[in-house]
Amino acid sequence: MNRVGRKDGPVRVLVLCTANQCRSPVGAALLRRRFAADGSSAKVLSAGVFGNGLPVPSTGQSVLAARGIDLTRHRSAPMTQLLVAGADLVVGMERSNIREAVALVPEAWPRAFTFRDLIRRGDLFGPRFPGEPLEGYLETVGTGRRRDALLGSSPDDDVTDPMGRDATVWARVVDDLEWLTSRLVALLALPSGARELRRVGAGGGG
Hints:
Elements: E1 11-17, H1 23-38, E2 42-48, H2 58-65, H3 81-86, E3 89-92, H4 95-104, E4 112-114, H5 115-125, H6 134-141, H7 167-188
Parallel strand pairs: 1-2, 1-3, 3-4
């Protein structure tokens, strides 16, 4: 499978969480909205380590509706090898999500990060330069990363899971994701069409 074979297609971002009912669909929806407002060409998908056709909880839907986001038609879907291998960037809500993605597609490691780790590294190295390939930028911000950093259960990089929680927690999580997605879009600085980010003929994962 050659994920870079889509020469003129949009950059593909895969957002992961555990069940694809709360954090990843919200993060994906916010990313789509921000990319669109920025004029960037990007396709954003979401999935869960486990996903079985369930909707976003009603509490979350109410909080989101107040912010102009409609996820009433969303149904949770599982992460697959095809989704991970086909993504130019994989972002997870916690380290275990990225650990599972890399276990499924080992070649995805250089382009798979938790949201918080990617933003922290991007803030350190700065935004992508115009014309810089996305692969190269992710390699730069990933400098010094170790795969064993994904081991363990530290919550340091986690976005809170609002499943079963009240509207106050949901609102706080959405606020958190609003900030994370705005920073990500600013750091990636994708051009309209995103053609300059692709290396024609480069090898892909999976």
